[in-house]
From TrEMBL:
One term of GO molecular function: beta-glucosidase activity
Pfam families per record: Glyco_hydro_1
Phylogenetic lineage: Bacteria, Bacillati, Actinomycetota, Actinomycetes, Kitasatosporales
Enzyme's top EC category: hydrolase
Catalytic-site annotation from UniProt: E167 (proton donor), E373 (nucleophile)
Protein name: Beta-glucosidase
Chain sites annotated for binding substrate: Q21, H122, N166, Y298, W420, E427, W428
Reactions that this protein is recorded to catalyse: Hydrolysis of terminal, non-reducing beta-D-glucosyl residues with release of beta-D-glucose
UniProt entry keywords in alphabetical sequence: Carbohydrate metabolism, Cellulose degradation, Glycosidase, Hydrolase, Polysaccharide degradation
NCBIfam families according to UniProt: BGL (TIGR03356)
GO cellular component, one term: cytosol
A biological-process GO annotation: cellulose catabolic process
Organism annotation: Streptomyces sporangiiformans
Amino acid sequence: MSEPVTFPSAFLWGAATSAYQIEGAVREDGRTPSIWDTFSHTPGKTAGGENGDIAVDHYHRYRDDVALMAELGLSAYRFSVSWPRVQPTGRGPAVQRGLDFYRRLVDELLAHGIKPALTLYHWDLPQDLEDAGGWPERDTAYRFAEYAQIVGEALGDRVEQWMTLNEPWCSAFLGYGSGVHAPGRTDAAASLKAAHHLNLAHGLGTSALRAAMPARNTIAVSLNSSTIRTVSDDPADVAAKQRIDDLANGIFHGPMLHGAYPETLFEATSSVTDWSYVLDGDLQAINQPLDALGLNYYTPALVSAAEAAPTGPRADGHGASSYSPWPAADDVMFHQTPGDRTEMGWTIDPTGLHELIMRYAREAPGLPLYVTENGAAYDDKPDPEGRVHDPERIAYLHGHLSAVRRAIADGADVRGYYLWSLMDNFEWSYGYGKRFGAVYVDYSTLARTPKSSALWYGKAARSGALPEVTTEENCEN
């Protein structure tokens, strides 16, 4: 028998969700539409025309959901606040009924000994702000800072771990470039402007939180930074990797961590934009000291140079669109990486997570790291007894958590891991067809059933060590 994979005693074992994917109650207590409400109600934008109107009704079932987290043994829960639930037009005073929901949720978590980790923005921009121009408009960054102050003042006394943005790459490039995410716009120049204003929102929001909250609280951001590899060492392929690395990674971690965009990014995108919207003082505003960095990882990318603009679907794993989320990179070819795949078509490769963690241990020495999302979608179904066996997900989690532990052994300061996702939910443009949850949700009744993986992960959380992976995981504690 191999030695057990054990983790530091203070390591956080968490799970993550986002507001629009689970809450439902989209018209209750003063909430107004977000861009995802509008997008999901637009014909042809989501699988089967599905939407988050009800989602998994967490807004009304949060007490049961928190009790389930405690039963599983989780030590932390990462959730997001719905901006239009708190500040319906994205401007002006808060709606206290909206804030009260998050006060109740946080109090419930604390009563069960679960550490709340709050993300301010997980893609649900108030529709009113999109109508005014959305993230390509500079004013949206200032509206975000106002919203951050409101939430910080309301919850900063009881929530210690904060994240400004979740995956700003998706907000900018899937929302405004390829159009597969809300608001569904397809404008390469607008996507780069959106990226800059998301960076500015992060910096201004961080400053607003620091002014509004106790000094003990920590502030981070969650980036879906990519592990990018090339098909060969040919200089053209290496140059293609640099282009994608700048657009996937450097465009965010450059200003956030180092106070500068990569010069190679400016050069590569000069045919799309002159970057004149980067004003004096912006980079200083963005480059605020952070207490931690969140990394979201699912699969690596494999690229090469292309002799001509590629035709057909891009193998970048970011949905089908005739518009690219990679501005000024039409001559870069994405390739399917080898290996087993999840239901998303994403290759299972824990080495990519180890590589990503070690990169950021070098990029930001001394900055604590968290894996704020990692998980897999599978076609989970209950057996005749109502149990849900998902040995593939257990193997996935074991492999990726082992990669985290190797990174810690290699010197990376990784403080915690948040499994994506706590439970099956609305998976954005894929509707309800992709199940990422450790907890199975019957969408007809909304009943929750922990899968084998939830029980396996709970054992890991309680013991601080990874249980053995057997060929037949049972569904009993």
